[in-house]
Amino acid sequence: MEKLATKIFLCGFFVVLVLLSGQVKSQEVEDETEFNYDEESETGPSRWGDLHQEWSMCKHGQMQSPIDLLNERVKIVSHLGRINRSFKPSNATLKNRGHDIMLKWADGAGSIVINGTQYVLKQLHWHSPSEHTLNGRRFNLELHMVHESPTGQAAVIGIMFKIGRPDSFLSLITDHLAAITDTAEQEKVVGIINPKQINIGSRKYYRYIGSLTTPPCTQNVVWTIVKKVRTVTREQVRLLRVAVHDESNTNARPLQPLNKRTVHLYRPDDPKEN
Ligand SMILES: [Zn+2]
């Protein structure tokens, strides 16, 4: 009798596991120890698609990210509209995922609306150097603000940074970043963080359909890359790098083929908007 009870319990446990794994499929993995950014390694970027069946898009997907945003190739449009966003202050946690630092909002932190679909802001994280390139040029840092629709589709806003004046948002969380650098702890509650304090600007941006840039490389991600490159100090980039407890100096996936995709550049017609 006891055995049967154990069996039933185990079955139930596996059902829950399967349900949970199905649910998180469209999200980026939170434990990044299974892959890395070293092309020489068995678990480097060109092998990601072989590591797990659920990661096969990393290898077979035709709409992968990041890409080079080449000015001669983009289609300039004025109808996409400004980035429609309504962010709000909310409780956040800083988390070391293994290859990057993620700031995660417990219940979302407001949303953006794209083509009538609402995407809730779930988390942000940084890549250095930048993953996307502009006319072949790579920058020092790229911020990804990851949003999710009720059906689990992702929309990411990307902001690129070059070395210069400090980024005010990173300045705001410097102490928290330093705190997780010095401990073995992987998570730290930071309290209320207001995403409105991120300097986005919304006048000119690139829009294309791509993928998550980390496994499982899920496709149909709506990308919005802000055209204006902002600035960050060398020290701020370094702080993000050392806070991650891996040996690597980089967490940028190599460029992926554009294939038949169109990249739009939204530029308002109204000269006052420029
Ligand atoms: Zn990212």
From TrEMBL:
Gene3D superfamilies with a match to the protein in the record: Alpha carbonic anhydrase
Flavoprotein as UniProt keyword: no
GO cellular component annotations of the record: chloroplast stroma
Subcellular location as annotated: Plastid, Chloroplast stroma
Pfam families for this protein: Carb_anhydrase
Cofactor names: Zn(2+)
Signal peptide range: 1-26
SMART domains the UniProt entry points to: Carb_anhydrase
TM ranges: none
CDD domains attached to this UniProt entry: alpha_CA_prokaryotic_like (cd03124)
EC number annotated for this UniProt entry: 4.2.1.1
Substrates-to-products reaction catalysed: hydrogencarbonate + H(+) = CO2 + H2O
Main location: plastid
Keywords annotated in UniProt: Glycoprotein, Lyase, Metal-binding, Signal, Zinc
Physiological role: Reversible hydration of carbon dioxide.
Family, as annotated: Belongs to the alpha-class carbonic anhydrase family. Belongs to the alpha-carbonic anhydrase family.
Name this polypeptide is given: Carbonic anhydrase
Naturally occurring in which organism (per UniProt): Quillaja saponaria (Soap bark tree)
